[in-house]
Amino acid sequence: MVVIGTRPEAIKMAPVLNGLRISSRVDTRLVFTGQHRRLVNDLQTVLDLVPDDDLSIMREGQSLYDVGEGCLRGLSVIIQEYKPDMILVQGDTATAFFSSLAAFFEGVSVGHVESGLRTKKKSMPFPEEMFRRLTDVISDLHFAPTIQAKENLKKEGLDSDQIYVTGNTVVDSLLKIADLEGQLDDDILRVISQDEGSRLVLL
Fold it and tell me: Which residues form the UDP-N-acetylglucosamine 2-epimerase domain (predicted)?
């Protein structure tokens, strides 16, 4: 089971989800919490992210307490109904943390994509830094984007056998979108190739 709720989660989990869906060994469900509904809706077609379940937790003016309650209550029902072997979450969002907590309450294993990133200050950024730390504590498998992220996890006492350095999945999404958009315009390619020693920054 893959759980997402925000635009960054949607972008970064799309390649993982699509990889799981083409495997004959895995039966995958996508759960959308609705934390960033309007920001995710426009990605559904482009990234093939039609959810199997939608918690629709977002309410105007809601607090983190409301988000937490919505995730925990909604996911408890879905987890009890489908009994997944593992729940995959991504990053440092409220959806990631509360989904991992719901999985823990139900005795379900957790895999954390983009695990191990740290600022070393628990309130910077707030509340994301603490969300990702706590999600890592709960998780059984850690998919770290970099060697440094893996080292961070090892320093916190996590077993190396549970940590996999996978790179950043946003690159996979970028490549897919680039394929959809086609080749760059010739004028753009000409500008890029003028100075091979220069750096190109994409915004």
Answer: 23-189
- Taking the complete model, does pTM exceed 0.90, yes or no? no
Is 198 among the domain residues? no
Scanning the structure block, which residue is given the tokens 């823990």?
104
Based on the structure, what is the number of domains in the chain? 1
In a domain, 51, yes or no: yes
Amino acid at 9: E
Q: Is 7 exposed, middle or buried (0-12, 13-18, 19+ CB in 10 A)?
A: middle
Look up the domain containing 65 and give its range: 2-193
pLDDT digits (tens, 9 = 90+) for 34-71: 886 766 677 777 788 889 999 988 888 889 999 999 99
The 10s digit of each residue's pLDDT in 151-196 is 999 999 999 999 999 999 988 887 777 665 555 555 555 655 566 6
Contact (Cβ atoms closer than 8 angstroms) between residue 192 and residue 200: yes
Q: Say if 202 falls within a structural domain.
A: no
Q: Is residue 72 part of a domain?
A: yes
